[in-house]
Amino acid sequence: MKFVERWIVVLAAVLALAGCIKVDQTVSINPDGSGTLDMVYGMSEQTIAQLEAMEQMAASMKQEGMEVEAESDSPLDFDEAEVRKKFAEKKPEGVQLLDVSSESRDGWKYMNVKLAFDDLESLKNTEFFEDNELTITKNAEGNYVLVQKLGSEEMGMPAGPQAGSEGAQGMDDKAMQAMATMLSGLRIAMTVAVPGEVIETNATQVEGNRASWVYDIDKDPQVLSKLGGKEELRLVFSGEGLDL
Length: 244
Fold this sequence. Notes:
- By secondary structure, this protein is of the alpha+beta class.
- It has one domain.
- It is 26% helix and 32% strand.
- The chain contains six helices and eleven strands.
- It has helices at 2-15, 45-63, 80-90, 120-123, 173-182, 223-228; strands at 21-29, 35-44, 95-105, 108-117, 134-138, 144-149, 187-193, 198-201, 205-207, 210-216, 232-237.
- The strands form two sheets. It has a seven-stranded mixed sheet.
- Strand 9 and strand 10 form a beta hairpin.
- The radius of gyration is 19 Å and the shape is globular.
């Protein structure tokens, strides 16, 4: 998804600062197709301070007429006011910002963002899902099939590799293990709560009507290959009594 692509680009800078990212995202779909997006993302406070210092330095260099590389368009804002400002400026159709809050614990800062959306198409209007291959269709059995594709051929990977050709998929075990060590602590959990019984899914965890795909680099060094490749999240749920 677009969000994953963009934070991976940001990781290139984060790597040098010995920091990493944690993301916990939950999309809850109601029987009428509307729903909510609950997202919690975190980064070490030390890394945030260093990144902010880098941004200030880049801004200063631009003012002095010096050429600097373009800043990455990261969806990870750690300022509540800035999150609200960006949402108000973009005003995504069919989406409402319900809550933004932050907290610090154990040296990390976490942002909590909650949105309400009219339908999945509206969800694509947010920066977390824009240009995202997210679809929901009804199959011949009358059940719903939700598919979300990760990765793209244009996606930037840390330290140079590009997904889709040699990229993360072409990294040997030794290189992948080295990258995993540098990115220790990286964890992304994507959960979908659906209004019908889960019939089939390739999720790593299923609990009731909730399916989760968890990418934890400390447990699986191949996480970068999955996120940088063409991973497809798939979920089939009962369409009984539903008309999405």
